[in-house]
Amino acid sequence: MAPTIEELYPEYTLTSSIDKLRSEHYAHLDEKNHVYLDYTGSGLASAFQLTHSSVRLSSTLYGNPHSINPSSQASTNAIIATRLKVLQHLNTDAEEYEVIFTANATEAAKLVGESYAFTKETKLVLTTDNHNSINGLREFAGRKGSSTVYIPFSSPDMRINDEDFIKALSAARPGRKATMSTGINWLAKSLLGCQPWRRNTGDAAGREDGMKRCSTSDTNPNQDASCDSPALYKAFLQPSCQSSLVPPQSASTAPARPLEKTTRHGLFAYPAQSNFTGVRHPLAWVTYAQRQGYDVLLDAAAYLPTTRLDMSITKPEFLIISWYKLFGFPTGVGCLVVKKEALSRLVRPWFSGGTIQAVTVGVPWHLKARGAEGFEDGTVNFLGIPEVMFGLEWINAVGMQVIGLRVRCLTGWFLKRLAALRHLDRTPMARIYGPENMDMRGGTVAFNLLDSGGKVVDERLVGQESAAAGISLRTGCFCNPGAGEAAMGLTVASLRRLATATAQMRGMDDFVEVLGLPSAGAIRVSFGIASTSTDVDRFFEFVEKTYRDRVTTSEGLFPRESC
C-alpha cells in the first residue's frame, strides 16, 4: 500500500488552508466531480475573482484609454496601478523596468524578436528546453544574419549542465575561447551555501512549533502571515538558489558589471522552469550570461504560478509572462517586463495606433510614443488588465509559499507513486521524463504509460479515456520540441530523415511513422493553487483500473493534427 502524503511529507499539513480555499472558492471542481491536473496549461480562476470582476465592471464605467474623458481616465488609472502592482510583485520598480502589456507570453517574446538588434556579429543562444514561442526567435535572428546556437540536454533527467551552458556562450562569441574552469568557479560561488530543497531534519523542535503556529492560523486563507513566513518554512526546508520556493537571496551573487553597447554579443533565452519536465534551470545563468556580454530573455510563464521571482536580484533584460497561467483569469493578457536601458535599444519594424505620438502621410515620418506605450499595439485590454492586479492580490493573500509548498509535496508524492506503478508481473506501468525527485524542479511531471506488453500507451487513448473519467490533463508534445526529442531519444541523424520525406508527409501521423516513434508525445500532469491529495488519489485509481495488465492498441483513434 502506498504511503500517505502526510507520511512522506509531514509539512503537507501546513497547507491545510488550501483545502478550505478549494471548498469555498473552487467548489465547482468537486461539484462537477472534476480532477484538474493541467495547471501548467492554465491556472484556475476562483469564484472570488469572478465575483470581484463582475462587481467592478458593473459599478465603474471604463472606456478607451486614449482620451481624457472620465471613462478613459478610469481605464488609464487602472492600467497604471496594474503596472505598478506587477513591478511590486516582482520586487522591482519603475526606475529600472517597464511593463508592456501584451496578449500573452508569446506576443511578449515576439516583441523582443522583431525589435532586437540581431546582426551577423551577434548570436541567439537557446536552451534545447524551450517553448516554441522562444524557438521561433531564431526566425527573426536568421533574417538579420544571426546564427542560432542550441545548448543540448546532457543528463538522463533532462537537465542542462553548467559546462554546456558556459561552452555555448563562449563558443558563440567570435575570437573567444571557452573559459570552463572560470565559469564553473563563478557559478559555484554564486550558488555557495545553497542546496536543493530537502527536509531539514535537524530541527525537530522548530518543525513542531511551526506546525502548531500554522495550524492555528490557516483557517482563513486571506490571513496567512505566520504560515507564509520564511522562519516557519526554514524549519522544514533549506532554500536553493536554483529551485527553492523563494528565489536566490544571496546579494553576493556577483552583480553584473554595466555592459557597453559595443560589448553585446547577442541574446540568450531560456525558461526559468520547463513546461515539459518541470526542471528549474539556474537563475544564476542570468547574471553569468550578462557578464559574458549577452542580453537575457527569461521565460517565467511556468515558473511564476508557484514561486516568487525577486528581480532586485535576478535581473534579466526581458521577462515574459502570461497571467492566466498564474490565476486563470483574465485570459488574453500577458506582459513583457523589460529593463529601460534594453527597451531603448529595441527598434520596432512598424508602428500602429497607440504606439506613436505623431505621424504624417505627406512625408514618411512618425514620432514613436515613449516607454511601454510605444510597444502596445492598438488599444490594450483595458477591461482585462485590472484583473491582473486583483489576481496578484489573490495569490498573495493565499500565500505564495503555501501554494509552493503544497505543490512541492503533491509533486513529490505523485512521482513516488508513479515510479512505483506495476503490472501484476511487476513490470513498470510508467516511464518518467525528467527528474524523479524534487531537486531543482517544479510541479510539472511528464511521462508515458506502458501497457502489460511494455509498449507505450498511445497518448491519444489516454487523453480520451481520462477525459471520459472527468480528469483534465495534457497530452502531446507541449510546444516544446527539444524536450520531446530528448524524451523520445531522437538524434540529429534520425531527424534528418524528415528532409527527404517532407514532400510526401501529409500530417503528424506521417511524422511519427517516418521517425519510427512509439507515440507522438507524452502525458503531462501539473499541480497548482487548488490541488489536493484527493486529486492524486483519483488519478491513480483511474490509471490502475484502466491500464493495469491491459494490452492497448491505437486502432480507431482520431488522426493527429499537430504537435
From TrEMBL:
Highest taxon above the source species: Eukaryota
Ranges where the record places region Disordered: 203-225
Composition skew (Polar residues), residue ranges: 214-225
Aminotransferase class V domain span: 35-153, 264-539
InterPro entries in the cross-refs: Aminotrans_V_dom, PyrdxlP-dep_Trfase, PyrdxlP-dep_Trfase_major, PyrdxlP-dep_Trfase_small
SUPFAM superfamilies assigned to the protein according to its UniProt record, in alphabetical order: PLP-dependent transferases
Cited Pfam families: Aminotran_5
Protein name (record): Aminotransferase class V domain-containing protein
Native source organism of the sequence: Podospora pseudocomata
Biological classification of the source: Eukaryota, Fungi, Dikarya, Ascomycota, Pezizomycotina
